[in-house]
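[Backbone geometry]
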Amino acid sequence: MEELGRDAISRTLRDAKELFVLFSACTRQPYVNCDPETFDDEIWMYESEAAAREAAKALLEEKIPVGVARVDQASRLLFFTSLYTMGVNAITLTAGEKKGRIQLADFVKRKEPAGEEKKAWVENPQLHLTALYYMQELRKNAKPEITPRLMELQEEMNADFARGRFIAALPQEGKGIPLVKMKNGDVFLPLFTDALEYQKFNREKKFRAVAVETAKLPQLLPPEAKGVVINPLGVNLALTLHRAAPQRQQQKPLTVEQQVEAAMREAELAMQQSQTEGGDAPQAQ
């Protein structure tokens, strides 16, 4: 297939009336591929729907469940910007008989946060990316098997999760901590890697966002929650957490909501102090 130049890729991604992307049925996110030669973490896009469906069919024959989604012009900028939060660094485009790759940073420039915005900024692109690869591999088979590759990805996720800072959702007022019920009946506290994932969950503006570090998460869990679920409307990764030991001396019993509020305030204060002092985020215990 003939090589598609960078200028032609940029022009097509920007101006084409229609663009199509392969979506993973395992993650409800664009299908991510690690190129074996360049090690780019890329997504695959197509100018033609027919070409996209042919590519999807080829992957399905390899037992990789994917679908095809249209990316219209109105949502295109948001779509490309969201790739940063997923850890994707490249786009491979097929247009007619030509094909080429462009680095995301060469096509979409991103404004870096500064000042107060930087203090409140929450993103975990490396964890998000590793979770995408993990779920693509784990869920592609009806009966998942723990392979050496999955174990390697799991170790990477654990390391990224331990040093992460996430967005949790609390009610705007009153009670009603949101929980997600899984198919087996277990409930988990929803947690979000970035603002875009949080916005999917909070479309009706029922909740307020609070940043919290991993080390504080066990203190936030309501008694009925088994752990946290990362990006429930995306990669939907459930993680079991060890619950924090209860305090032995306590004058008055606190409600779950009061405990969560207190832990959130403590987490926010610790985060502010860390930013002021230039320290590293505390590690999960």
Observations:
- Residues 2-107 form a domain with the Trna Endonuclease; Chain: A, domain 1 fold (CATH 3.40.1350.90).
- The radius of gyration is 21 Å.
- Residues 227 and 240 are 4 Å apart (CA to CA).
